[in-house]
Amino acid sequence: MIDLHSHSIYSDGTHTPSELVIMAEERGLKALALTDHDTVQGITELLYSAKNRSVEAVPGIELSADCERGTMHILGYFIDHTCKAFLGKMEKVQAGRSERNIEILKKLNKLGYILQWNDVLKYVVKDVIGRPHFAQALVGLGLVKSKKAAFDLLLAKGRPAYVDRYRYTAEECIEIIRKAGGVSVLAHPATIYRPDEQLRALVGELKGYGLGGIEAHYAEHRPETIRKFLGWAADLDLGCTGGTDFHGANTPDLKLGTGFGQLRVPDEALDQLKAVKPLR
Hints:
Layout: E1 2-3, H1 17-26, E2 31-34, H2 43-49, E3 56-65, E4 72-77, H3 84-110, H4 117-121, H5 131-140, H6 147-155, H7 170-179, E5 183-186, H8 196-209, E6 213-218, H9 223-236, E7 239-243, H10 268-275
Parallel strand pairs: 1-2, 2-3, 5-6, 6-7
Antiparallel strand pairs: 3-4, 4-5
């Protein structure tokens, strides 16, 4: 059993990469990928922590791609996290995040949800600040009842405090990952709001750009959804990956490796990824 989708304190998770490795070993996982949002700052710690343990550490990242309806994320695996060109591309994304965060704060205050920047920073361990940190601040100040309520009322796409940010296109994400020596995978495809026929066509289009896999095994996918994406992957000659999208205490019902209890990502998913790993 493996988990190829997890987050640490370097984005919006609550565990350090070292803690994730220890947890993965305790839960009997053979491999763990760290896929923080738009950053590879935790990869060095991940690789070092796994050196003398039974868990294979997979360097990764999760990039947000431009998407009209829903959410599109592109996972990158086996990336060279020291690649200067790659890090330069991430700096542009992080600058967009910073600009977006300022606008979110302004909108919340204008809506009557009075926050200071320090109220948000209280929940930030590392440098990447996102909407979950605003949600935590709102809950901490008693302005909303839960993080889910914060998103449902204010922070989710289409809600009054939502602010879009700079994103690369899916084609650009795939190319950025390829140039860093990695293989790209379409994360949780069900979050892209398109009819099945259109979504499958999109996956085929992304394969043309160099997509290497599709995340078929996912904590929120029903068995029939997993079977559907496994079929698409077979038809399009794509690797099949999977993971929990673990965020620690930010997703308390979700467990590393098993999701909500039913998830089992087969070991061969990692072998499939390695088989499609592109050359630099």
